[in-house]
Amino acid sequence: MQTKLLEQGVEITSALTIDELDEVKALGFNAVICNRVPGESDDFPEEASYRHKANQLGLAWVHIPVKPGEYSQEDIQAFADSLAHLPRPILAFCRTGKRATHLWAYARRLSDQCELTTLFAAAKEAGVDLEEHRQALESQSA
Fold this sequence. Notes:
By secondary structure, the chain is of the alpha/beta class. The chain has helices at residues 20-26, 48-57, 73-85, 98-112, 116-125, 134-139; strands at 4-7, 10-13, 31-34, 60-63, 90-93.
């Protein structure tokens, strides 16, 4: 498992296995945000077993399932609420890390109007290009 920093206390990673949640805990994370849709691939048939394992490990767990590129205001608000209330550090994941990064950027714009240059730089450093979302991010407001 490789994590990438988005901001202090928030990192992303690609698809996690249930067993990797032990490593998540050992690395010092306190919370996990999952953006995978149950059944989207063979390696993620359902979410309940992940939630159960996270709870056993004492990790806060939030599931905000989204399809790539389909981010509703409710999804963005849920991610923003998670960033505001979950104990840090937080690890967000999806299949590749893109959805988690996209939701993070939208949530940051929604909650504190974070500058686009800051969001784009952090996402780029994490290996995710936000360019296709520029217009929507520019219009995102609290």
